[in-house]
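TL;DR need structure tokens for one chain.
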Amino acid sequence: MKMPVVKYQRGDKVMGRWPGSSLYYEVKVLSFDTTSQLYTVIYKDGTELELKEQDIKSAAGFQTRSRSRSRSRSPGRRRSRSRSPARTTRRSSSRTAAAVAAAAITDSAPSSRRETRLKDTLEVRLSPLQLTEAAENNSNNKHENLEEKQKEENNTANKVNEQPEAKVETEPERNQARYNLRRRRDDGAAREVAATPEQLEEVVKKVAAPAATVSTPLDFGGKMGAYFWLLFLPAWVLFLVLQVNLVDPSLANFPPPLPPLEAFWDAQALGFVILWIVFQAVLYLLPVGKVSEGMPLRSGERLKYRTNGFFSIVVSAVAVAAAVYQGVDLTYIHSHFLQLTMATFLISILLSVYLYVRSRYAPTEQLALGGNSGNVVYDFFKGRELNPRIKDFDLKFFCEMRPGLIGWCLINFAMALAEMKQQRLDAPSNSMILVNLFQLLYVADGLWNEEAILTTMDLMHDGFGFMLAFGDLVWVPFTYTLQAYYLVSHPNPLSLPAVTAIVILKLVGFYIFRKSNSEKNAFRRNPSDPKLSYLKTIPTATGKSLLVSGWWGVVRHPNYLGDLIMALAWSLPCGFSHLLPWYYMIYFIILLVHRDSRDMSECRRKYGSAWDEYCRTVRYRIIPRVY
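>> reply
TL;DR here they are.
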């Protein structure tokens, strides 16, 4: 059998066409699959793709062809003396503008012949070259080119289909690059046309507003899914709040009766929620605690965060204790749970609208890759801007860890007081104590290790929109507290052996969760740390390595495993009389399986063949020998 001829070898630097476009970027060949006849290549941003041979050109041939065409001009065609604006060069600080324009650019260079404008399509070849390479290629002809350009500007014609290649130098923040733009004529022959960054910026203004710059697939069912979730999530929270308040919260009593409209709103509840958020914001802004650096962004920048969450929960606990001592009745939270939910929902809507509006004015490099689809509803739901900030106040980081998470503990404590009041007890029941302590430990641990959240998917990849705003402010405090709310009216006595078994289960889950998260966070921040030298890894083409030892050698998501074990320990104190207090366990299984699928897709796109090797090494996703 005749073996196929491999034109490009592993390690070759070539020009690869971006799928679905006419753009060519410098790529590195990783491998060649003889079965599919496809080359696996990696772009400079770490993206790995499989390309056909016809979509790959040699870098040397690509540049040589461009230079030869720029010099093969016919003197006989130089008729007009009008100067083309395309020859004007200008400094530009945005590679993104060039990339967007290249994807959807239309002709803007005027023709002097009969003063008409030809509406041709531009086929764009973007081949960024380092300044040192450009200088080396042109150093021998520098003076000759300058004289030739000056002569052409004064004596030659500038018909559109005869314009030579533009030598445009743009100066981004750190280096300079050269872009070659090529015109495709109606007859299929390609000729070069000069285009300046100024022209590109003009085109960007026309096409960038409706255009999408999506680099990742749409999540949550895409655009139609966004409509569904925007309606379903608030309706589901409303159902849970109304259902758990029934004397018999059995699902057989679905749907729960709707209260009168005036029962949904209470101005005092809104004031209480606003006061709580402002109080947490003040604690966040205090110059107390460590200032941590986030992971590098696409621009290379690392944002700074004030990680004083544990300080905030301690101060909050002291403030709540002082309020109770002064006679404040926190059982108000139980009796006005519906009104507090609706007030927080209103605030999350207003915040989401603000986030979407401000994202329309954010620079492209500050947008999340997965939240910039061009569809208003999807982008509103998923979130367009990755790290929206008001000066140094990071809105996403604050909402992720403060008002909702600490509010979760506050609501649980209020439910314990409500149980004592309603059941006429001198102390909360064992079940209520376990639920409060387990969830308090979870939140306090998260805030103590607040820096670890900077390496999570929410902070690194997801934009801040309705999904996270609603999740952080409404979903977490008003659905994760259902177990405590349920126990207020539905007590479940526990024996000492049962309490002991549940505590052991909780500690096992907590150990797996904390140990695995600590390994991951330490490795992501400093893979070369001598303390982590015992960990085995798989190198990737991006320069990063994948952990295949420790807890990360047992399953791909040991932190998810620990989370699920803890969720089981939270639900067991509520017994088995109703399904509703097991909602958190059921929901969490669905959430983590979905997150795992998202993570699989992202990592396969990013790491390519290295991820396949990782999956063969670590076979199970979350539960050993099960899933």
